[in-house]
């Protein structure tokens, strides 16, 4: 293992893998260290914070203008609740839990507000490389209420230098970054690609990113979009690096869709981060391919 790999004896979960162009961070998607576990486990957040991992949680606004840590607007079946979270106050989600891959509720993964989940981080030692991406989810046609922006700013006060705001919805992500001085901005253009098929052309996608690049330090690209660009001979990831934008390839998990050739392509393309629910397995596969 290199200096960028896990060295702390309390964990065997890697934070990065050494590539030919330097370390590639392995971001713990939904705070997962293994695919079968429930998302947003408090113990994984604390562990990653101490060890220096790249961590990711999803946030969405509730009916009372708070931010809940949830991936989907519908509570069931991924949690023990039911109903549409954007139509519910945060207090009504108390006592709910996220479920693991077998459907079992995990007491280490309660449904919490952003403020509740991150509050313990202020009492924990933080490794310098630790960062937390807040992946903003929005319903079609919706914007964040001002109260939700204020809620985010209050929730991460004092932690801003470790915060990355990422989203398909760049304008709303910019509002959050403006309210959290020191936070970094990431943009995921894949929703725009789904709405504008012409952006599947990597050169056009690059021009789209150039037009929206102000303040953006991370691009979140679906891994197959990167592979497609490389197969066409267009170095999209390198061109983004030339703009000062690092690329995160999402979501890369072991299975039929991920071959050694695909992993080699991502590594050779110079991605700086890989989003995964299975960092141990992806670390092993990259090291062996």
TrEMBL record:
Origin superkingdom: Bacteria
Gene3D superfamilies named among the record's database cross-references: Phosphatidylinositol (PI) phosphodiesterase
SUPFAM superfamilies: PLC-like phosphodiesterases
GP-PDE domain: residues covered: 55-280
Listed InterPro entries: GP_PDE_dom, PLC-like_Pdiesterase_TIM-brl
Protein name (record): GP-PDE domain-containing protein
Species name: Sinorhizobium garamanticum
Lineage: Bacteria, Pseudomonadati, Pseudomonadota, Alphaproteobacteria, Hyphomicrobiales
């Amino acid at each position: 293992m290199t200096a960028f790999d896990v060295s702390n004896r309390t964990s065997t979960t890697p934070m990065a893998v050494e590539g030919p162009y330097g370390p590639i961070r392995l971001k713990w998607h939904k705070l997962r260290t293994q695919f079968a576990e429930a998302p947003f486990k408090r113990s994984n957040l604390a562990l990653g914070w101490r060890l220096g991992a790249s961590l990711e949680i999803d946030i969405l606004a509730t009916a009372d203008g708070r931010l809940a840590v949830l991936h989907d607007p519908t509570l069931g079946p991924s949690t023990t609740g039911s109903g549409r979270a954007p139509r519910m106050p945060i207090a009504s989600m108390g006592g709910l839990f996220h479920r693991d891959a077998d459907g079992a509720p995990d007491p280490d993964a309660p449904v919490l507000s952003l403020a509740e989940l991150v509050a313990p981080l202020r009492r924990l030692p933080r490794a310098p490389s630790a960062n937390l991406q807040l992946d903003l989810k929005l319903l079609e046609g919706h914007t964040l209420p001002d109260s939700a922006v204020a809620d985010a700013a209050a929730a991460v006060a004092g932690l801003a230098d470790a915060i990355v705001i990422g989203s398909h919805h760049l304008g709303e992500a910019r509002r959050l970054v403006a309210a959290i001085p020191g936070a970094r901005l990431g943009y995921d253009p894949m929703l725009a690609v789904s709405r504008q098929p012409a952006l599947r052309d990597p050169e056009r996608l690059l021009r789209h990113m150039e037009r929206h690049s102000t303040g953006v330090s991370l691009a979140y690209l679906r891994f197959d979009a990167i592979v497609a660009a490389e197969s066409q001979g267009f170095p999209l990831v390198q061109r983004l690096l030339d703009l000062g934008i690092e690329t995160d390839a999402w979501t890369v998990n072991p299975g039929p869709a991920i071959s050694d050739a695909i992993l080699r392509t991502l590594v050779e393309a110079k991605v700086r981060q890989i989003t995964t629910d299975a960092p141990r397995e992806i670390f092993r596969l990259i090291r062996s391919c």
